[in-house]
Amino acid sequence: MTAQPAYDQVAALPAYSEQAIPAAFEDFNGHLNVRHYLGIASEGLDESLVEVGIPQNWPLAAGQAVFSAEHHLTYFSELRTGDRISVRVRLVGRSRRAAHVVVYLLDDSHSRVSYVMEEVLLHMDMETRKTSDWPEDVADRIDERLAEEKQLPWVPALSGSMRLR
Questions:
Q1: End-to-end Cα, the chain, rounded Å
Q2: Which end of the chain has fewer CB atoms surrounding its CB within 10 Å, N or C?
Q3: Which residues are CB-neighbours of 113 under 8 A, at least 6 positions away?
């Protein structure tokens, strides 16, 4: 794994799921419970997918969905009640039926990257519940975003544990 990008580099990406950590998310250790890191990051990813043509009601509206296939989770710093956070998403690649993303949970109160979730997600046909090719409009929008993000002056650190097939 290469070095993680700096907070300022990641913070330049669009923000999703901006919020303060509520007391209800705290665990016995006095910080954000592990299940909420994944949940908040997933919510931010869902919000970001709207921009490439994948609305949250896609399964009902179009009979299509995205399913998670793999995750790699890395925790860098704890988050505590009241900390301001945001989610940032960077696309890494796409195949005919899958996409590879890196989701960053930023601690905006302390200007640091707190958590990184690397994920491979699959395009699904909800009628057959099998993978299928991305619709052309979605594939085009993913490709446009990939091209834009390749122009950024930093490369996301990857775990090396997953890849597109």
A1: 20
A2: C
A3: 4, 5, 6, 7, 10, 76, 77, 104, 105, 106, 107
- The whole-model pTM stands at 0.95
Q: Which domains, from first to last, does the chain contain?
A: 7-150 (3.10.129.10)
* Closest C-alpha among 102, 91, 103 to residue 144: 91
As given in the structure block, the two tokens for residue 161 are 């544990």
> Quick one: 16 exposed, middle or buried, by C-beta within 10 A (0-12, 13-18, 19+)?
buried
Chain segment 66-116, per-residue pLDDT in tens: 999 999 999 999 999 999 999 999 999 999 999 999 999 999 999 999 999
- Amino acid at residue number 71: H
Among candidate residues 65, 58, 74, 59, the one with its CA nearest the CA of residue 131:
65
Which letter, b or e, does each residue of 84-121 get, where b requires 16 or more Cβ atoms within 10 Å of its Cβ? ebbbbbbbbebbebbbbbbbbbbbbeeeebbbbbbbbb
Residue 10 exposed, middle or buried by CB count within 10 Å (0-12, 13-18, 19+):
buried
